[in-house]
Amino acid sequence: MTQLVFLPGLAADHMMWRAQLAAMPTHLNAVVSTVHTQHPTLEQMAAALLHTYPDDLILVGASMGGMLAMEVVRQAPPRVRGLALLGTVARPEMPVMRDLREAAIRLFEQGRVEEVLRFNLPQAFHASRADDLGLQQTYLDFVMAAGPAQLIAQNRAVIARPDARPHLGRITCPTLVLCGDSDRLTPPECSEEMAALIPGAELHLIPQCGHMLSMERPIEVNALLLVWLEKFQP
Fold first, then answer.
1. What is the pLDDT at residue 1?
2. Which of 12, 16, 68, 218 is the most buried (most CB within 10 A)?
3. Nearest to 187 by CA among 171, 202, 160, 209
4. In this structure, what is the dihedral angle of CA atoms 103, 107, 108, 109, given to the nearest 10 degrees?
5. What predicted TM-score, i.e. pTM, was given to this entire model?
């Protein structure tokens, strides 16, 4: 039996995958993992996910979820039958981003969560979605619901993430790499780098799309995922 597992981004939950869950083939038993809310490091999250889902896995991870997916396949390559990486990065944290995250953590500790999130909202979406208040509110709602403790813990996990690039060349499962062409948090060059390192990886850049591609461009994302998932017919 094969389990399709969606891995949310930082402080996200099933809501970021709502459009995908509704479109997935029933035989793959799609679920959304919550291990990112329960463990302090990507390594521990990956070990917990492997324990929680003992069957073969197809992993679809976005942003921090993509980092987690790469750690799962590093820990247990035979268990992962397919890997989809959306708007993510294999590189370790860069000093500039580390400083920005540490500054945000200090503000979260002061209870200034909404202030930080609203200030950074333009980084999450393409400029063309600036007037899409419903989309923005959905995003704000689930990140606010995560709360300051989770925001702090998950940012620290991302800061401490390992460099995934050394093991990407050993990945043998079918791999799909997707990125918004205007992603400012994990720019397309990061996806191009991953696709170049993973043998046989398939790369697509989604036009007029920012970082939250599963929410911004669900029709395009679903179409690419469904074609890719045909590789895993029972």
1. 81
2. 68
3. 209
4. 100
5. 0.97
